[in-house]
Amino acid sequence: MQLAQAEKIKLLVETSKKLLRRQAVPHLKNLIDKTHASDVALMLHHLDPKEKQAVFSFIKSSHIQADVLSEMEEGDIPLVLEGLETEKVCRIFKEMSSDDVADILTLLPEPMSSEILKLMEAAQSEEVEDLLQYEEDSAGGIMDPQFFALDENMTVGEAIQKLQEESSEQEMVFYIYVVNSIGQLVGVISLRQLLTVKPQKKLSEIMSTDVIRVTTHEDQEEVAKLVSQYNILAVPVVDENNKLVGIVTVDDVIDVMREEATEDILKMASVGNVDVLDLSSLKSVRARFPWLLASFLSGLVALSIIGKFQSTIGKMAVLSGFIPIILGMGGNVGTQTSAVIVRGLATGRVVLDQLWKVLFKELKVGGVLALLYGVVLGFGVQLISGEHPRLGIVVGTSLFLVMTIAAVLGAFLPIIFKKFQFDPALATGPFITTAIDVVSTLIFFNLVHLFLHI
Amino acid sequence: MQLAQAEKIKLLVETSKKLLRRQAVPHLKNLIDKTHASDVALMLHHLDPKEKQAVFSFIKSSHIQADVLSEMEEGDIPLVLEGLETEKVCRIFKEMSSDDVADILTLLPEPMSSEILKLMEAAQSEEVEDLLQYEEDSAGGIMDPQFFALDENMTVGEAIQKLQEESSEQEMVFYIYVVNSIGQLVGVISLRQLLTVKPQKKLSEIMSTDVIRVTTHEDQEEVAKLVSQYNILAVPVVDENNKLVGIVTVDDVIDVMREEATEDILKMASVGNVDVLDLSSLKSVRARFPWLLASFLSGLVALSIIGKFQSTIGKMAVLSGFIPIILGMGGNVGTQTSAVIVRGLATGRVVLDQLWKVLFKELKVGGVLALLYGVVLGFGVQLISGEHPRLGIVVGTSLFLVMTIAAVLGAFLPIIFKKFQFDPALATGPFITTAIDVVSTLIFFNLVHLFLHI
């Protein structure tokens, strides 16, 4: 029976640390040999810099080093490669697909990356340079330029033979893409289909011509949506002339989905879109500092608003006790609503032109929640506190108004962000809580001033 | 060129609404015929209940209805099926895989689901009943009991023949699983491999015996991690005796990943783990109400703490102005930290036994951020405000302490939750913000009391 994934990695990390300390190199090499490349990559992530470099250098062949490298965390890669000679790096890159090489090159410091590009074989470096021109998160940026495509005039028998001859370079052949004489994508055939029809048939006779495809500049999130929506294993990527230039396979899509979900979560929590776990403490501070600034500034605005009502508070100090509950409830309803909307936009379940419908529903839900909590707080205060005959009414009404406005803002801002092509997840982070803090303070103290006459 | 997904669905929804209004049934049927089953399912989601039922009934065959049904949103399914006769539902179910049928049955009201189970063919209903015994989010709950497995003594030639004979029932054959005489999983062969070796070879000679597998009770999140970690297209599911009982394919894993990411986001935003977009407004209110209660109660606690310092505030009303900034900054740092940790735990990049290492790093990062903002606020207040000679120092120190504690809590709570097998995403939602509100109020007013002597 298998050990749970986390247990296994933990054991691997401990064992290799122990073997490194004892300098038991043959044992360590043996351990690495028997471990799946993906697990070696994960294990490396939990080792210290020196240990990472040592373990990586003990991997048997450039081929396996390439496998490990393409599974490694981005932050670990420069660390490991900078310890190697440039020639060695080129030998490893030769074993990798060009899209992975292009991704890694963007992580390396400048003199090193261009030196490597110069040393690489012309054919590969050209492919890599082609890929480097695409946006990192576009279909072109994540596609593999090595794919299996056959001419439409080929027969099924010839196709099977071709498939058997091909080296294992394209390890994951899911579909056979069919192209015409100028390389344009005209159809698709599944491996399975190939096995179940007569070998004399032409590919053009059995292919399906309704091929789901994307262009090179398509956003990677859209590619992921297509794969998830249509349950397909690979999406062909074409240029503006419909010429087949690469494929995006389901394993890349899974990485994209994980990445996008992480990005959304971190953006919604105002951590920025950098993956902070990988950064040093100092870089972490630098990444998170500006996001806190929004909350700091809104705090200062709230401070100056409350400052204007100093004499009111001086006369009735209990008022300040309601600040945490009103701001807190407002913030929470706003976060709830915006999380629902942001996720709905990401999964395609909220569509942009439903703006009014969505706003209306969130207004209803937020309004009812606001009414419930507003009434409870208002009545409670009215019953218990004897400070002022209308204090309960003012506190309850404030909570009701703040929560209702927060719900509408929480729904409205992400949609507006999306409309203007900003990431809606960003709206949830600094903008909504900031806006709510200021609006809440304004509403509460103005109502107090108006209705309690103090 | 393709329309963007969202555009396409929007157009489909508008067109079908128009055709329904005009009762242009043949046109509508024609439109549905030409649309991919996945798109029909998505389109149905955006129609009104009556329209959903009408469009679904216009789908040409039970076979295509089955395809659409397995892609539909959970909330839409009962609505559409309750409008049909039980016999019709059984005919549709006959075209679906047993795991999808089992999932749908759990969504239907009781008399209907058992009636359907009775009317279904014995073979299928048995399979479905077997599946219903597994937890919904376990490997057993998401696996497909129809898979392609061959005996280890078969030759490659026989295997290819068998593959060609098989009906298209198992549409996605990625790997050929090899079993021994009592059905235990002993190996795996890729389709590709089968094509590239001599037909006389026995499967046991060419199979890989190192098969990544899971048991039926494994959590679906673990299955998703395996698929993403090892870039595989399907995971075989075995029972406690290593007997092969089903497979989980990559398309199911993609659904699981999307679902789990949504769950995490909604839990972190305190919306609960229900997908609120699907619920009626009333159900939405009911789902969200209890999550706001935590924030309400912590607000009341803060209210009573501040109440104890009424005379202090009465003497220096400006103090209350600092409540929003101190609580807000504390809450934000806490949310930042916990989001990083929760996501790290979900993707396997934070491992449980790193507790102290993670806490230490977050203490450092949080501490530096706290120091920066604490000093800025403290100095600012000291310079501008003439209320009290030590006000700046107290305010700055409070902010520093609150932010540091918030960072540690934000890292600590999710890890503790995970240790005790609760969902760490839950910690971020109500618990952290609640704890921080109370701690912040306590720290600030006690420091004021101690050092300003008012």
Strand and helix layout:
Two copies of one chain form a homodimer.
Chain A: H1 5-21, H2 25-33, H3 37-45, H4 49-57, H5 62-71, H6 76-82, H7 86-94, H8 98-105, H9 110-119, H10 122-132, H11 139-142, E1 149-151, H12 156-165, E2 175-179, E3 185-190, H13 191-195, H14 203-206, E4 214-215, H15 220-230, E5 234-238, E6 244-249, H16 250-268, H17 281-308, H18 310-315, H19 322-347, H20 355-384, H21 391-419, H22 424-452
Parallel strand pairs in A: 1-2, 4-5
Antiparallel strand pairs in A: 2-3, 5-6
Helix pairs in contact in A: 1-2, 1-3, 3-5, 4-6, 5-7, 7-9, 8-10, 15-16, 16-22, 17-22, 19-21, 19-22, 20-21, 21-22
Task: Give a written overview of the molecule.
Two copies of one chain form a homodimer. Chain A is mainly alpha-helical and about 450 residues long. In chain A, about 65% of the residues lie in helices and about 5% in strands. Chain A is built from 22 helices and six strands. Chain A has helices at about 5-20, 25-35, 35-45, 50-55, 60-70, 75-80, 85-95, 100-105, 110-120, 120-130, 140, 155-165, 190-195, 205, 220-230, 250-270, 280-310, 310-315, 320-345, 355-385, 390-420, 425-450, and strands at about 150, 175-180, 185-190, 215, 235-240, 245-250. In chain A, the strands form two sheets. Chain A has a three-stranded mixed beta sheet. Chain A has a three-stranded mixed beta sheet with strand order 4-5-6. In chain A, α15 (about 220-230) links the parallel β4 (about 215) and β5 (about 235-240). Chains A and B meet through α1, α3, α12, α13 and β4 of A and α1, α3, α12, α13 and β4 of B.
